[in-house]
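Backbone-to-sequence.
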């Protein structure tokens, strides 16, 4: 009998091009889940990996960090999911292929059941627990920060057209990202005008505007958290800095419950879809055509 195969849309080399190839049908190992992808989110980190190779061990590579679909098979010790479950998941872990293919294999703790109210396209767009800005990760961060710190002053930088949406998600004040006096505006909006305790940078903004660090309160903890973007940022003396990415959450106490807790927030109306969804196509080959839309990301 002929062996089962799947289609994979691979980046042949750094910078592309993409090519459709045939790969082996996966078999999940213990602790793994195989998902037949129904929708794949285009994440800015994907194009940064394509053009800069920050997290690529070898070429060709299958990209795709965010996915949603139907469970096709599970490892022998997996009990939380079964074939037929509608789920959403992170993908592309530990050198394994991402979601730009028909069936993707991921660790069980990357997966959660898709909220009933969300479409597959909406479920694949959620960047989980990555904070900063008014991008998809930023809009998610605003909501999670408001849940964790109900009385906090949460400032965001974004285009004015997004102000109403970001405020509804929990931001205290939105600042025009093109404001030449951004730092002064941010300090004025902070309690007593003294500055902020921490900067959470999801878009590598400090790479282009080093003055962002001046928004930190001189007598405060002066914490800067950069969500991994591949940008090289010079950190001033006296600033405590850490580069983070979403999967680090799984290493924290209770972190293995991250995905399931997100679904609880959605089901309880405490987490809203961060961005409007734009469907780029219904075929893997469409990925290359819409890829350029990520580059400003």
């Amino acid at each position: 009998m002929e062996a089962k195969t799947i289609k994979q849309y691979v980046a042949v080399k750094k910078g592309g091009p993409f090519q459709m190839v045939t790969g082996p049908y996966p078999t999940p190992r213990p602790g793994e889940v195989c998902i037949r992808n129904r929708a794949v989110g285009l994440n800015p980190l994907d194009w940064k990996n394509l053009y800069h190779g920050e997290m690529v061990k070898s070429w060709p590579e299958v990209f795709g960090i965010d996915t949603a679909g139907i469970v096709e098979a599970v490892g022998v010790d997996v009990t939380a999911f079964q074939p037929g479950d509608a789920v959403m998941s992170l993908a592309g872990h530990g050198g394994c292929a991402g979601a730009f293919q028909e069936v993707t294999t991921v660790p069980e703790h990357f997966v959660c059941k898709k909220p009933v109210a969300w479409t597959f396209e909406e479920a694949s767009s959620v960047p989980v627990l990555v904070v900063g800005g008014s991008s998809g990760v930023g809009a998610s961060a605003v909501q999670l920060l408001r849940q964790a710190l109900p009385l906090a002053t949460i400032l965001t930088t974004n285009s004015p057209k997004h102000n109403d949406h970001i405020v509804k998600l929990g931001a205290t004040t939105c600042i025009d990202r093109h404001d030449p006096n951004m730092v002064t505006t941010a300090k004025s909006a902070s309690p007593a005008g003294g500055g902020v305790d921490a900067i959470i940078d999801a878009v590598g903004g400090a790479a282009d505007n080093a003055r962002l660090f001046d928004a930190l309160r001189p007598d405060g903890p002066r914490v800067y958290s950069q969500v991994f973007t591949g940008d090289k940022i010079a950190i001033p003396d006296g600033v405590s800095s850490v580069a983070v990415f979403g999967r680090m959450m799984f290493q924290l106490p209770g972190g293995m419950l991250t995905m399931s807790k997100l679904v609880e927030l959605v089901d309880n109306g405490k987490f809203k879809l961060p961005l409007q969804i734009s469907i780029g196509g219904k075929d893997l080959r469409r990925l290359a055509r819409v890829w350029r839309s990520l580059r400003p990301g």
